[in-house]
Amino acid sequence: MSNLFTPLQLGAVEISNRVLMAPLTRCRADQDHVPTEMMVDYYAQRASAGLIIAEATMAMEGNSSFWREPGIYSAAQVAAWKKVTDAVHAEGGKIFLQIWHGGRTCHPVLNDGKQPVAPSALAITSDKANTPEGKLDYPEPKALKDAELPDIVKGFAKAAENAREAGFDGVEIHAANGYLLDEFLRTSANHRDGPYGGSVENRTRLLLEVIEAVAGVWSEDRIGIRFSPLNSFNSMKDEDPVGLMTWLAQRLNNYQLAYVHLMRADFKGEQQADIITPFREQYQGNLIVNMGYSPEEAAEAVSQGQVDAVAFGVPFIANPDLPERIQEGAELNQADPKTFYTQGTEGYTDYPRRNA
Question: Which pLDDT does position 268 carry in this prediction?
Answer without folding.
Answer: 84
